[in-house]
Amino acid sequence: GLMIDNKLFSISSSNFDYRSFRYQYELALIGDEVEVIEKLQRHFEATYENCISFNYENWKTRPRIEKFFEWVLLPFRYLF
Question: Any residues with CB less than 8 A from the CB of 43 and at least 6 apart, and which?
């Protein structure tokens, strides 16, 4: 979901990357209904409470085995 100034929302399957825009058919629902916006806001707030924030320093020091698998799988990223 995407919220814009708490006035518009978008619920979609679309991802913001070149593969989604170029190769895949995506669906998006855009609206401005207050009730839907309020429900989405509550959902987002509940989701944020359970999130783990990205930490660049932790990412840089991730285990070597993770880095290895990322390197091995990198060529396959265009297939999916």
Answer: 1
78 Cβ contact partners less than 8 Å away, ≥ 6 residues apart: 19
Q: Ramachandran region of residue 6, left (φ > 0), alpha (ψ -120 to 50) or beta?
A: left
Which SS3 state, helix, strand or coil, does residue 71 take? Answer: helix
Q: pTM to 2 decimals?
A: 0.56
**d(C-alpha 57, C-alpha 69), whole Å:** 19
Q: How many domains would you assign to the chain?
A: 1
| Statement: residue 2 has pLDDT above 90 | no
Nearest to 29, CA basis, from 4, 12, 14: 12
Q: Which domain range does residue 29 map to?
A: 2-79
> H/E element holding 31?
strand 28-31
